[in-house]
Amino acid sequence: MGTVDPRRQGRDAYERLAWREAYEGLSAADRQAPLMADDLDRLARAAYLIGATDVATGTWERAHHAFLDRGEVAGAVRCAFWIGLTLLLRGEHARGGGWLTRAQHILEDAALCCVERGYLRVPAALRALNGGDAEAAKRSFVEITEIADLFDDTDLRALGSLGRGQSLMAQGRAAQGVELLDETMVAVTTGEVSPITAGIVYCAVILACRGIYDLRRVQEWTEALSRWCATQQDLQPYRGQCLVHRSEIMQLRGDWADAMDEVCRACKHLSTSHGDPALGMALYQRAELLRLRGEFSQAERYYREAGGRGHSAQPGLALLRLAQGRLDDAAAAIRRTLVETEGLEERPGVLVGSVEIELAAGGVEDAQQAVDELDRIAAGFESPYLRAVAAYARGSVLLAAGAPEAACTALRRAWTAWHGNEAPYEAARVRVELARAYRQVGDRDTAEMELEAAQRVFAELGAAPALEQVRELRGTAGRAAPRSPEGLTPREIEVLRLIATGASNRVIADRLVISDKTVARHVSNIFTKLGVSSRAAATAYAYEHDLV
C-alpha cells in the first residue's frame, strides 16, 4: 500500500468543504515540506473558516510572499487583501490598512490590470457607506461591479452587488436595494461564490433586511444561512450570527424556550472567536429574553456584558429599570439614548422604549413626539412589523391622553398586524391595552375576554412580568392560568400539526427554524402529554381534535 499524501488529502477535503480535514491535511503536508503558494492560500482559507484567524493571517502572509517570489503579483495582492480585510473586521485598523496600502503599491509598481484592483476598492467604498456618503459608495460599488464583469469574477461581483444594494437602502430606496440583494443571493445560494465571500454576503444581507424591518426576508435568508452552514464541516464564522437571528425569529413567534436555547448556543459559539462583534448582539438578545421572563438580575448581567462587547445595552436596560420600578433611572437612560441614537435602524426600538417609559412617567406629550417620529419612519418602510409597532405605540398614547375610542381603532389595527406576523407576545400586549380602552368606554365584558386571552398567552410563554400585570388587572393574582387541551403549548400544537402531515423531524426543523434536537424534545413532550407512543397515534389525535 502506498503512503497517504496529506497534501492530496487536504486538497480533496478543501473541495468537499470539509474545512477541519483540509486544515489538518494541509498543515501536515506543510510540516513535511513547505507548501507552495496556492496550497498556502487554501490552508489560510481553511484556517479562517474554522475560526483560526491568527493562523489564517499568518498563512496568507506566507502565501503573499510565495506568490511574489514566483512573480505572481495578482495572487500576492489577493492574499494581502484578505489579510487586510480580516484585520479590519477584527478592529485592527492600523495593521489592516497597512496591508491594503501595501497591496495597492504593489499593483501600482507592477502597472498590472487585474481583477484585484476591484477588490482593493471595496474597503474605501465601505468607508464611504459607513461614513454616511451613500451616493459616493454606490458609485464606487458600481465601478467595482464593472471590474468584476470585465474579469468575470463572481466573488467580486457579489461584493459589488451587495454594496450597491446596501447603498440604495441607505439612500432610502429600500425596494430597489432589496431587489438587488435578492439577485446577489442567487449567486450565493447556487454555489457560484467562494465560501468566505458567501458568508460575508449572507450575514450582510440578513443585517440589511433586519435594518429595514423586513422580517420575512430575515427569516428566509436566515433559514438559507442555517442550511449553508450545516453543509460545511466545523464552520466557525457566520454560524454564531445565524443562531442569534434564529433566536430573534423564534422570540417573535413565541418560541421563547427555543429562542433561549439558540442564543445560549450562539454565546458559547461566539465566545471562542477573537473579538467577534456578533457576541455583543447575542448577549443583548439573551438579556432581552431574560427580561421578558422576569429574570431581572440575570438580564442585567447580560446587558452589561453586551455593553462591554461594544453593543448598546439600550433600550433594553432602560426597560429593565422600568420593570424594576426605577422610573427615574429608566427615564434618564432612554432620554439620553434617544439623543445619541441617529441611525434609522436603531432609532425605532429606542422610540418604542421611549413611549413606554414616558407614559409610565406621565410624559404624554413626550410620548406623542416619539410616536409621531415613529410614524414618519414607518411610512418610509414597507414593513408590516414596523407598522404594527407604530400602531401599538399610537394606541397607547391615545389611551393615556383620554381618547379611548380612537385608541381602540389604533390598537385593533396593531393587533391585526401582530396576529398576521404570528407574534403572540406582541399581540397579547395589544390585548391588554385594548382591555384598558374597553373598560374606559364601559365594555367590561369584551375587556375581560381580551385580558383572559392575553393571560393565557403570557402563561404559555413564561412572560412572568406581563402575566402578573394581567392578573392584577383581572384581580386574579395567584391563580393558575388555563392551559391548552392536554397541556400542549402553542409550539407543540404546531409540531403536532406538521407530524400529522407526515413531515420528518428534519423537515419540521427547517419549517419552524429550530434545531433537530429541539424538534425531538417537542415530539417527546407531545407523546408524553397525549399518552401515545407513535407518530401515527399522535396524527390520529390531531385529526380527532380538529387540529389539522
Automatic annotation (TrEMBL):
Residues 481-546 form the HTH luxR-type domain. InterPro entries: Sig_transdc_resp-reg_C-effctor, TPR-like_helical_dom_sf, Tscrpt_reg_LuxR_C, WalR-like, WH-like_DNA-bd_sf. Keywords: DNA-binding. CDD domains: LuxR_C_like (cd06170). It comes from the Bacteria. PANTHER family: TWO-COMPONENT RESPONSE REGULATOR. This is LuxR C-terminal-related transcriptional regulator.
